[in-house]
Amino acid sequence: MNSATLQARSNLNIEEFFSLVEAEGDVTYELIKGQAVRKMSPKFFHYRLTKALLNLLELWCQQRGEVAIEWAIRLTQQDRDWVPVPDLLYISYERFPADWMQDDACPVAPELVIEIISPGQTFGQLVSKARDYLDAGVLRVWIVDSKARSITVFYPDSAPQTYRGGTPLTDSILEGLEITVEQVFQLARIPDEGSLF
Q1: Taking 50 as the threshold, does the pLDDT of residue 63 lie above it?
Q2: pTM higher than 0.70 for the full model?
Q3: pLDDT, tens only, 24-38
Q4: From its phi and psi, is residue 194 left (phi > 0), alpha (psi between -120 and 50) or beta?
Q5: Which of 28, 46, 92, 182 has the highest local Cβ count within 10 Å?
Q6: 65-116: per-residue pLDDT in tens?
């Protein structure tokens, strides 16, 4: 099945979705409201930010849980199957068994999901997605904006908070993690001005 035919299919359930996208190979899709939606291919700054965040989170989370890049998650959105593929996620071994060895999507909502704004995406679109993640049981959502050089943190029970520069980004659910937005951007070697997104 070619990608246009796959994306034209509607009312897919989760089993149909996984069966169909498996045949597509390296193309990444998300299941949204019964449709397979192709995920945007990342560009250079996106890749560098992903790598920087992965390195910082992996340093912190040793023996605590898993940090993963583009690992699909089995969730629900308005009582329908939903399979988002966040840029990064962190899930603790309290929610997810350390000895789990299935080649499958993440079976439970992680503590943290990170989405990096890609070309063609808006902050507003990701705000809506952040709310869907929180409604599905994710505890924190970070939206990383390379143009604004910011990370906005979304919480299930309070207003979002935007971090910039050298202000420490700390959180009770990520005990011991203390990073700054400037640290992330410096590690990613993203220039101060002229982001190409």
Answers
A1: yes
A2: yes
A3: 665 677 677 777 777
A4: left
A5: 46
A6: 999 999 999 998 888 889 899 999 999 999 998 888 888 889 999 999 999 9
Tokens of 64: 């605590």
| Helix pair 181-188, 44-61: axis angle to 10 deg | 120
Query: What is the residue type of 182?
Result: E
* Rounded-to-integer distance, Cα 148 and Cα 165, Å: 10
Rounded to whole angstroms, the Cα distance separating 158 from 140 reads 11
- Alpha-carbon dihedral angle through residues 51, 56, 62, 64, given to the nearest 10 degrees: -100
State the Cα angle at 170 between 164 and 175, rounded to 5°. Answer: 160
Residues pairing with 91 in the sheet:
66
- Cα separation of 105 and 94, whole Å? 18
Residue 58's H or E segment, with its range, is helix 44-61
Name the nearest CA neighbour of 190 among 115, 181, 113. Answer: 181
Token pair 């202000």: residue: 167
Tell me the pLDDT tens digit for each residue of 4-31.
545 556 677 767 776 776 656 656 776 7
SS3 track for 85-132: CCCEEEEECCCCCCCCCCCCCECCCCCEEEEECCCCCCHHHHHHHHHH
Query: How many of the other CB atoms lie within 10 Å of CB of 96?
Result: 16
Task: State the residue for tokens 């001005």.
Answer: 193
The single-letter DSSP state of residue 157 is S
